[in-house]
Amino acid sequence: MENPFPILGFDVGGTKVAVSLVLSDGTLVASSRVPNKEREPDDVLPAMVSAGKSLLADAGMTRDDLKAVGVCTPSPLDFKNGIVMAPSNLKKWKHVPIRDYLSEAFGVRAFFDNDSNASGLAEWLFGSGVGTQDMLYISISTGIGAGVIANGRLVRGATCDAGEVGHMILDVNGPLCNCGLRGCWEAFSGGRAIAQRVQRELANSPNSAVVQLAGGNIDNIDMKTISDAVEANDPYACAIWDEMMERHAQAIGMLHNIFNPSIIALGTIAIQCGDLFMKPLLERVKKYGWKQPREACSIVPGKLGSKLGEYAGASVALYALHELGEWDLPWQNN
Ligand SMILES: [Zn+2]
Question: Does the predicted model carry a pTM greater than 0.90?
């Protein structure tokens, strides 16, 4: 087995960029963060490069040791040309050729993908999906998106939009979604949609337990406030939670039947809330999919947890090298 080689990973998010030095055997050597809130890409890109160079120097490595760079950003993006296309939480990043910029800066090949795919790859290569051929990683945060691994390959689709599961329509008469459609899974159960709904419904209820938990300020209501109110058995919050879990179960039941995965790993809220989230989900999902695919699948909180972002960028590069026949999956050598 060849010696593990180093990869630099960059996970570009709306408030920060996670920069990490990862070895191909999954060792996270070191990581740092570059602030990205409301900043111009012309400022952030050079800061990303110097953060990457510092990680290499601190580990006693140079650019010559580096095998490749991997980077992920939110969608939409031009996958083929490695360009970020002004995602909703990176509005200043208009048509930024991030892949080639990093490739030139480090003098190695750079590989690029969207953050859902990158998270799915990270959880597959180094988290709960290790050794499987079919898995989904679903991030349930402000929005909902998935990275889909089928038959041992990442599913990108024709325009790199595969895995946009948050915009499956669960009820065409449902609430309006940010994407312009009506009744998307995310419009029912995404963190932003739920918080906005509760803020609207409790606008005139200052004594509600949820508003109290938000310090009396309706604008502070978020998923954490709502889950705290559920734990305190507040009837309104429990009713919202039940509705939310029903929609999660409906969507995940569909995904069972479409992909027949052996693992569905859930990110963010499932990790933060644990049983409060997982128990009602596992109970309700039985109604929404066939028994055989359901029984073949473990639905679990993601294993990498808060380390996911540190593996995401590097996993993009590792998977690209795997597709090129230059790197075996971690379990292929065993
Ligand atoms: Zn939508």
Answer: yes
